[in-house]
Amino acid sequence: MNDTSPEIEKLVRSRLLARSGSERARMGSRMFDVARAMVVASFPTNLSEIEEKVRLCERLYRGEINIEAFRSHLIERARALNEERTRTVN
């Protein structure tokens, strides 16, 4: 659905393109941060860090990556970090 008039769409586009590349990059980054925060806020509060990352990735990149492979990668990485911490402490 697009309910924006062509005149307003042209005005918004011209104002956006009038900004520098770094300003547009910052805007995009801030928009992504806000979108990410909104998605995370919709999750149950008792998720593990790994499950939160998996759900976030699934919500943002569904169809673009293999979620189960990503989950396995995160679990393996967490195990490796835990083993490294254990070796460092002992």
Characterise this structure.
By secondary structure, the chain is an all-alpha fold. The chain folds into two domains: 1-42; 47-90. Helices cover 78% and strands 0% of the residues. It contains four helices and no strands. It has helices at 6-18, 21-41, 49-61, 67-89. Helix 3 (49-61) runs antiparallel to helix 4. The termini are far apart.
Instruction: Outline the biggest β-sheet.
Output: none
* Radius of gyration over C-alpha positions, nearest whole angstrom: 20 Å
Count of separate DSSP helical elements: 4
Helix content: over 70%
Structural class: mainly alpha
- Termini gap: 60 Å
Per DSSP E runs of 2 or more residues, the count of β-strands stands at 0
H/E element sequence: HHHH
What sort of overall outline do the alpha carbons produce when their principal axes are compared? elongated
Q: Strand percentage, roughly? A: under 5%
Mean pLDDT: 91
Spans of at least 5 consecutive residues with low confidence: none
